[in-house]
Amino acid sequence: MNAIEVRALTKKYPGFELRNVKFTLPEGCIMGLVGENGAGKSTLIRLIMDATARDAGDVRVLGTDNKSPEFTKIRDDIGVVLDDARLPETLNALKIGRVFGATYSRWDNGVYLDYLKRLELPEKKRVKDFSRGMKMKLALACALSHDAKLLILDEPTGGLDPVVRDEILDILEDFTRREDRSVLISSHIVSDLEKLCDYVAFLHRGELLLFEEKDRLLEEYAIVKLPEEALSDLPEEAVHGVRRGKYGAEALVERRSVREDLPLEKPSLEDVIVFFARGEKK
Amino acid sequence: MKGLIRKDLYVLRSIGWLFILLDLFFCLVPDLRFYAFAAFYAVMLILMLLQTDEQCKWDTLLPMLPVSRRQVVLEKYVFGWVYMALTAVLALLGQLIWQRIDGFMPVNGTYFTLLGMDLGVALVSQAVMLPVLFRFGTAKGRLVLVMTVAIVTAITVGLIGGSYETLAVALSHFRAWHFLLLGAALSALSVPVSLAGYKKRLMK
Question: What ipTM was estimated for this complex?
Fold first, then answer.
């Protein structure tokens, strides 16, 4: 079973359009959704959770059409963390645990309390007095305490310091040790996703420019540095982006489509994303 | 729905205790004109709860939790109804105590008619308010609340502004259940309208 299947998904707002998005996240995998602010990541997540109307397309989550009445029950298997946490701010962590305990059928308060301890979150302090990092950790503790099969996280590491970010990434790695658990995580911090993800999707101005297995992506593409005038020697179909500088040019190329004697460098995920985003060709 | 009710009870306890104290006062004053405020406060309370949901953006997380749209809408109605019922019981108990002390306004048919009227007005206010709040959010909903308060006040002043005897004569044509029936009928209509409005707002 696939964790998420999205087909030809389209959503139009005045001045913005999410166009024909399609991807499949297999069960047991982690997918990183990358994109600049305003690229449509949060809209896509809301569409996946049927929290907003789509104009076209289909979405299946954990094998169920998200427009079907059964999807309310399927949400019991999904842990969601949105940017800003969005938890009731006048409550403390213990009370929030009780609210979620009465909401999710498989809520495990023991697990929740363990997470509060592990993440060093105060039990009796009001959420409104939490820092952003603490709020995000609390939201994550909630999402992880009801035996979810799928985690959907919208910018969980945005605006956090590297220590907290690392802590969150560790927890997500733990979560996916069980093979039937999947994660969709959106972020514009590509280095976070590089550590974690099996699949990478790149959303740019409402369009899914890239959806690929991360390892394959890093194997298939390479960066070549060469004088600007030598760019024209590269086969056009092999070049996916060009960066020009004072001392020459860099191009993101498909390894198999260029000459083997070229000095190819392994790109980072960030390199690939930046080249795709700029999209400048020869 | 249990989780939603629990959340609202916690929020009420943490920020609405002053509100409840005031309501307690309105319930226990031996004058049903004050109780009218207590019953109407149920509507204010729901507005306050929805407002706190919007402030912390809980309302945007809610559609992603395992609760149906219907449960989200119905919970606020149930909360209001239960709150109104509790205030009515409390007002009745208070009145019985006052009656024993000084015999002020006996608990008789007229009393129950007035109580029913107050509850009916509160039910009608809730039935009018919630569809607006669910469709447009609390910012626009507050405007409707102000208008409703003005109308309710005008009616109350019109009816109760005169002497108690005049009011008793005016109300002798009605029974408590007339007001309650009107409130219940409008509530029954209001729930599906709220649900449709809420879905429309979510699906923008």
Answer: 0.85
